[in-house]
Write the structure tokens for this entry.
Amino acid sequence: MDYVAILAASAWVPNVYFIYKEIQRRTLRSAVRIVSADHVKVSFNSYGPNFILKLAFMVENKNIVLSGIEAVVTNLENNKEKVFYVKSMEHNINESLTLGTSNLTTSYKKFDVMCLRLNTLLYDERVLYFYDKAFLNERISEEDKTNEKMLFLKEQEKEGNGVFNDDDFLKSVEMKNRINSINDSFFWEKGRYSIKLTFNIHSEVFDLIGDKYKFEMPSQDIKHIENNKEVVEKRFEAIVKKNDMPLWVPGADRKLDPS
């Protein structure tokens, strides 16, 4: 038996395996499969229109890193579109079973989003908070103007040039513009909506499965969350006057259908 030949051939086995794995890595497309809960929570507050989705992510073929998670929401009655992005998310960090019962308690941790790493060996369940991308950029500008106005008036008071008055500040042009900017961003109307999820995966071509959904907003839910327009003004008044903070009207839970 030619042991030298056998040894020489066996030395190629690891190399062939690694070459195969490298070809597979370079040629196979990743696939991200999304499974959604059966509802979406639609809301409005000082961060503008927003909604919450509970999603499970599964990735096939290769581990990947997602960033820039966004959703294009379209009102199917008038074709108005708005781009929302994930500002924060909650991650399942613990599950516990109550002793002597079948009650399973799930604990979540909320954090701001930079990216999301998905592993082929695990599924990843998240609660995603989507916010109006354009409005949040505008909101920063209006917030800066009101903060500058308040600091200016308080500096004037320190220098003996008048007394800072809460009511006068709340009636100022800067404060009115800030409140109007928030309330004018209200996007929700009666009718059907579609959601199209999008992601960035750097230097990767991938397939996205389960990225389209639809839901309906009835008039009573619109009126319900529109009550938060009044809460916006009351909360700013509470901040300035250091009063108890009024609570937001809870969002509307709507049935979510795959599209």
